[in-house]
Amino acid sequence: LREDPGTRQATLHVANQEAARLNHPPCLQLIHYTVKDGKLNTDVVFRSNDGVKAVAMNIFALIELSRMIAREAGINELGSYTHHALSFHAYSRDWKALEGYCKSFDDRDCTIDYEDYLEAYQDYADECREKSIELKKAQDKKRH
């Protein structure tokens, strides 16, 4: 992306079941990045995604990853984030929570602007970044 912002090949295939030593295929299959109008756009494909308990954390983490990739590639702004879930589901134990979540869309628009996301999750993001740095330091210390 840094060398060729117009590339259509910035795709991370993350579903290597054998390499990850998993019994089942990973839910997250791929992440694809494009640069348009100087902004990094992110498209993700999930094989399967829990629409109640996992999706918000997945989106948060993938937007944070996009932010890191943009920074490393010298891209100053994030563009769109599109989340594809081939099997978007809810478990019966979570139906009550899902019902309340769905009703909330009767009262408001469900579109989230990136700036609104930043404002809503800034404290959480800062805390996660700090913990990530601490974990990396601890891992580096173990290696040396």
Shape descriptor? globular
Q: What does the largest sheet look like?
A: 4 strands, mixed
Mean pLDDT score, rounded?
85
Arrangement of strands in the largest sheet = 1-2-3-5
How many helix segments? 3
Radius of gyration: 17 Å
> What is the percent of helical residues?
40-55%
> How many DSSP E strands?
6
What this model shows, in words?
With 144 residues, this protein is α/β, with parallel strands linked by helices. The protein has three helices and six strands. The protein has helices at 55-73, 95-107, 114-143, and strands at 11-13, 28-36, 39-46, 49-50, 77-85, 88-89. The strands form two sheets. The chain has a four-stranded mixed beta sheet with strand order 1-2-3-5, with helices on one face. Strand 2 (28-36) and strand 3 form a beta hairpin. The protein is globular, with a radius of gyration of 17 Å.
Quick overview of this protein structure:
This protein is an alpha/beta fold and 144 residues long. The chain has three helices and six strands.
Give keywords.
alpha/beta; 43% helix; 144 residues
Secondary-structure topology with pairs:
Blueprint (H helix, E strand, L loop, with lengths): L10 E3 L14 E9 L2 E8 L2 E2 L4 H19 L3 E9 L2 E2 L5 H13 L6 H30 L1
